[in-house]
Amino acid sequence: MKSLQYYINMQKTEGFSPYVVVLKEIGEVVGVCGFNPPDHGCDAELMYHFKRAHWGNGYATEAAGACVNYATQLESINVLGASIDPENTSSENVLSKLGFYSVGEKWCEQTGQNEPYYKKEI
After folding, report:
1. Which of 21, 28, 53, 66 is the most buried (most CB within 10 A)?
2. What total number of domains does the chain contain?
3. Which range of residues forms the domain containing residue 32?
4. CB-side exposure of 80: number of CA atoms within 13 Å?
């Protein structure tokens, strides 16, 4: 419950947070996409996580693209960052399609591993 309140507050104060992704046709929640707080010299960090059953359908690209578009409307965001699981090359393709470029790696406390890190100026 603490993390939910944290993100509600972040949406109120920063104008962005993670968002639920729902398939309109059937009303099913298939994942989340949106933003985490600033990290590694970025104004916000793009994030997306989808249920494995819905991988490969273009939902990550569509949702992340909509979030990047939203970020361009916010004065507080000039640089977006994003990290991916090193074994998930599909996530790398999503970021590439959206114009992100590799800037090396960063340590991810949550996963306990170094992860490829990307940026995009908007």
Report:
1. 21
2. 1
3. 2-121
4. 26
